[in-house]
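Thread title: Can someone regenerate the structure for this chain?

I was given the following input by a collaborator and told the matching structure tokens would be attached. They weren't. Posting the sequence so someone can regenerate them.
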Amino acid sequence: MEQAVIAALLVVGLVIGAGVGASYARAQRGWKDYQTIRTSVPGARRNAWTAIRGVIVKIAVIALLTVGAAAYAASGSDEERASPTPTGTPTPSHRPGR
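Best answer:
Regenerated them for you:
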């Protein structure tokens, strides 16, 4: 009878120990993952801001080119401003040789 109680306590202890051990191992893995991610966050943050800065610069360049093209189109082409307006040739009132 005494052996049955000892065996039952041993089984209960093994079940509780296995549960506590698994929980402890899970907590250790979680803590290790947390530490790894925490140390990689500044680098990831820096990379994200670098990517955002690149996109903002590209958008700014495209916007400036668009505004410049619109201003150029609104001012008219160079051909219209470069050529002088034609003037009429005066007609002589008298014809020479008559």
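The radius of gyration is 44 Å.
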